[in-house]
Amino acid sequence: IGNNNLSINGISTIENAKKGDITFLSNNKYVKHIKTTKASAIIIDNKSLISKNSNTTFLIVKDAYESFAILLSEIQKMNESKKSGIEKPSFISKSSIINKDTYVGAFSYIGENVIIGKGSKIYPYSYIGENTKIGNNTIIYPGVKIYKNSIIGNKCVIHANAVIGSDGFGFAPKSEDEFTMIPQIGNVIIKDNVSIGSNTVIDRATLESTIIKKGVKIDNLVQIAHNVTVGENTVIAGLSGIAGSTTIGKNNMIGGQVGIVGHLKMGDNIKYAAQTGVTKNIKSGNTVIGYPAMTKEKYVKSYIVFKKLPSIEEKIKRIEEKLYNLQS
Question: What per-residue confidence (pLDDT) applies to 90?
Answer without folding.
Answer: 96
